[in-house]
Structure formats: C-alpha cells, structure tokens
Design the sequence.
C-alpha cells in the first residue's frame, strides 16, 4: 500500500481497488496496449472523472496493476511460504502451484511474468516494478532454503538455488500456458526440487528422486 | 519455408523476408499491437501493395514473424546442438547463451518467449505456432540427452530433463531481461546442468558441482 492509498477513505480505497482489478483483468485479456482507460472505466462501472481522480494516466494505473498482481500472486502462496524450509514443504508448494494451473486450465501463465514480458523493452519504470515484485517472490523462496542451509541440511548457495527455482517456475508457467498442459510446470519444478534434494543428501550415492529411473 | 514462399521468385523471397524482418524488429520494440502494417511497410521500405501481396493481413505477418524468430533462435544455437550429448557440450551451450545475453546487455529476452507471452490468451493460432517453435527447441536439447541416456551415461528421463532445461532457460531469460543482468540465466542453467550431471554420476556420494559449496 502506497502513501497515496493510505490517504483515501475506505470507500475511496474500494473504488480504487475496483478500478485496478478491472484494469488487471482487461490487460490480462487483451494485452496492455489494447486495454484503454475508457474500457477500464466501463468495466469498473465508475465515471471517467473517478478514474482520473485515482490515476493521473495509464502509466499510474499500470504500476498499480503490477502491484495488485504481485500481491495476488504472493497472497496465494503465502500459506505455503513458511514451509519452504523442508523438502516436504517444497513439494507441497510445487503441488499447489501445479494444481492451481490445472484449475485455470493452464490459462494466463504468470500474471506478473506476462506483464514483465510486455513492458521490459519499452517501459523502464514498469520493468523495475515487475522486477521488484519478483525479488519479493525470490526472497520468500530464499528464506526457506536459507533456513535449511543454516540448519546444515542443504549444501549449495541458497540464494542461487532460490533464483534458479523462481526461473524454473517462470519458464514452466510460460510453457504450460503455451501448451495448455501442466507437464512443463511439473517437470521444471521437479527438476529444481530434485536438484535441491540431491544437495540435502549426505551419504547416498545417487541423487535425485522423481526423475531418476 | 511454406508452400507459399516456395512459389516466390528469388527477388520475391527477398522482399518478403525484408518485410518479415522489419515486422519482427517493430514487434520487438513496440509490442505486437503497436506495430501497424503501415509502420512495417515504412520500415521495410516497400509499398503497401507489396505488403498485401505477401501477407493477407497482420495475422499472416505475425505467423511469419514467429517462424522467422524461431529460425533465428535455433540457427544461432545450431552449431552447439550437436554437442549436447556430453556435459562439456552442455556447459559450452550454457556459456554461449549467457555470453549472447551479455552482448545484448540483457535486452530482448527470448524473441519467441516474448511473442508467446503476448499472444497466449488472445490468439490461439499464434499460440500454437509459438508452442511448435518451442517443441523444435526442446527436441534439439532432448536429442543430446537421449544420446547420453542411450549410452548408459544418464539416469532419469531425457524427455523430462530436456523440457525442464528449456523451462529453466526461458525463466532465466525472462528474469535476466527484467533485471538487466545475466545472473538469473546463469544460475538457472547451472542448476539445470548440475542436476543433469548429478544423474550422470554413478559412484560419487555428492552430486552437483557449480552450486555445491
């Protein structure tokens, strides 16, 4: 929540949120450039002056959408983030991500990854906002791996492993979105977690579980 | 090359290619929807009737751009694809992908991944074209891993490992593009290849190399 939204009344915050939610949905359905402020206004069921009361321009609205989608993505995983310091917790997180995509019929990909891809080369401010959202996501994964590392249960660099896991997740989501099947996300996360698990094992000669034959 | 392009004269093929290259560049710089046929015509230095001679509409041009970018991405890696059946070859491929992003100053991400993200939810035909390009990329990786597997040098499922490696690569490219540094691509590919390497080792107790401390 920015200082600006804190100054709003409760009703004002609700209106603002309705506008952002409508914009997020339209940008997702049509792409950033096709979603006009007039479309957003109509979809949110507010007046044009209300939209401009909360957002100076489309850029301000886009930045609010990036924050909104980041919160949505992180909120969804929040209950599992605390468990990412064990292999069982990591596998549970993997399962929930796969299950969520299955429920969506593999549509949509990653809401912030998609926005990031669209803004990366033509909107530096929005690119940094998306990158910042990803840093929060990466930090949540890293926290779990760092705890495992601190307990002496994980070899390897928890920072690198967290970043690699987020990358695998993003690539898995993109391929799952394109192929409309959960398999790419499954194998991407399995490979990542199998790799992490292999770094938790001290004495077993053969690392890897799910993909080892 | 489609049956349509085979019917063109050599000069016709060159003109068509110039239009597609101009369109690819504009779609990359501005995003799909912002790149109009008029922009493409001007950038390619051809007449409007020439554009319409080769492409019925923007959709036909988009599909040609997807094929063009797929060829470009695969051509670039082609010299290394034959070497993906050894760990040394896989590491060399990783280094060349990282070096290429460094030369681009981490701009652009993956040309086909970016297109895929833009079309995935509003253009099924283009989505399938991108998915098909990714299948070719995946097949090139899989071929190397299958050879290792056939020689008894790799445990695990080469198909899953190839798909997971492509996912790690895509996610690494997206995060590298957003952060403007090669680190995400490096750690994503290192984790993937360390995992593959751990499945090649028969007797060593601790798998993993680069990320093991």
Sequence:
């Amino acid at each position: 929540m920015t200082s600006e939204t804190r100054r709003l009344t409760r009703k004002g915050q609700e209106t603002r949120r309705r506008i952002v939610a409508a914009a997020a949905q339209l940008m997702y359905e049509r792409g950033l450039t096709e979603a006009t402020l007039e479309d957003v206004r109509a979809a949110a069921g507010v007046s044009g002056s209300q939209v401009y009361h909360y957002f100076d321009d489309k850029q301000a609205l886009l930045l609010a959408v990036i924050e909104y989608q980041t919160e949505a993505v992180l909120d969804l995983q929040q209950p599992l983030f605390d468990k990412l310091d064990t292999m069982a917790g990591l596998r549970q997180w993997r399962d929930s991500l796969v299950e969520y995509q299955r429920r969506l019929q593999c549509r949509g990909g990653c809401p912030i990854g998609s926005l990031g891809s669209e803004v990366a080369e033509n909107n530096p401010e929005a690119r940094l906002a998306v990158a910042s959202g990803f840093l929060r996501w990466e930090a949540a994964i890293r926290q779990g791996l760092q705890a495992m590392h601190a307990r002496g249960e994980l070899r390897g660099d928890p920072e690198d492993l967290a970043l690699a896991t987020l990358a695998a997740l993003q690539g898995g989501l993109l391929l799952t979105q394109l192929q409309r099947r959960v398999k790419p996300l499954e194998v991407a996360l399995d490979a990542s977690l199998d790799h992490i698990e292999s770094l938790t094992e001290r004495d077993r000669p053969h690392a890897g579980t799910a993909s080892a034959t």
About this structure: Residues 124-150 of chain A form the longest helix (27 residues). The two ends of chain A are 48 Å apart (CA to CA).
